[in-house]
Amino acid sequence: MPLPQESLDELVAAVARFVKERLVPIENETAENDKVPDSVIQTMKEMGLFGMSIPEEYGGLGLTMEEEVRVAFELGRTSPVFRSVLGTNNGIGSQGIIMFGTEAQKRRYLPGLASGEIIGSFALTEPEAGSDAGSVRMTAKKDGDHYVLNGTKRFITNAAKAGVFTTFARTNPDIPGAKGMSAFLVPNGLAGIEIGKADKKMGQHGTTTSDVVFNDVRVDADALLGGVEGQGFKAAMQVLDRGRLHISAVCVGVAERLIADCVRYGSQRKQFGKPIVEFQLIQAMLADSYAESYAAKSMVLETARDRDRGADVSMNAAACKMFASEMVGRVADKAVQIYGGAGYIADYGIERFYRDVRLFRLYEGTTQIQQIVIARALLRNAAG
Fold first, then answer.
1. Is residue 177 domain-shared with residue 283, that is, in the same domain?
2. Given CA atoms 204, 85, 245, 182 in this order, what sign does their dihedral have?
3. Which residues are designated catalytic?
4. Same domain membership, residue 360 and residue 347
5. DSSP letter string over 124-175?
6. Which of the residues in the chain have pLDDT under 50?
């Protein structure tokens, strides 16, 4: 059920204040230390932000998709690393359990995910399987009342802090492609799980990705998501639909933050005896940035509402992810241009955003994968 409008307004306002007063002032510090302060994470827990998308009966806020993207717009107005801390719990780390888990699995994991006491992680990507999710090579062999998992996962967000991995593995080697893939809820700390060193990334310093190696990891048979083999690919794709809308909303928030910063800077920076915002070529860049961010925001809101109504939004979620992630890259590029030399200097923070937003075009499906999803849907629709 949707929140009462007053309650939603209060939540959005509280997140906006938190972003402005607590997060924006420590963006540079967090990037330099490559760590989000524990006190900030604790406040996120107290605000219920780890459980925004988790149903109320399991301790979450139970936000609708539209409500979630409205919060994500506000979270996007600061460094993306802060959202990444709680993003997996609300998206790919919990949605598979919500959509496909057994009741026992939901009660075991969702309350902890909602409170932030458990960090969820999504272990799909491998050295030879990323965009082509159906090529997963990790194996899960049945052995009595257990499965034995072997394989390596790559670029796994929050792996070092994860309490549970939604892990995708091939349960039937005789079935090629997606149909032979299953999903497992694997608690961290089991014998045979090895977390690799943190990756050195281009941007988003403050959140970590790592390899996760599974060497003869034994899990109980009830770790199989939903208790059914062969639905791993379906679970992954449906989880990504929601995640793509959330990421799209964050892209909008980042773009709005950059536009506001550019207007403020351009009003103070003078050249040729007047503020640079008075020059038409600067105004053109601001106008283009605003129009694109507004278009993306409208797309995200409309698609979120459609999803809440029960419509199939796979094609439009992909369109949102493609457009919004590309859009924020263009806005960040224009921001560097408007700031000029200052945009290239770390002290102003613009170059950090320029690097940070580049990831949006890669994870949860690259731009090219979104294009494929859209094109295939168009062809299916045309064929009737």
1. no
2. positive
3. 364
4. yes
5. --BTTBSS-GGG---EEEEETTEEEEEEEEEEEETGGG-SEEEEEEES-TTS
6. none
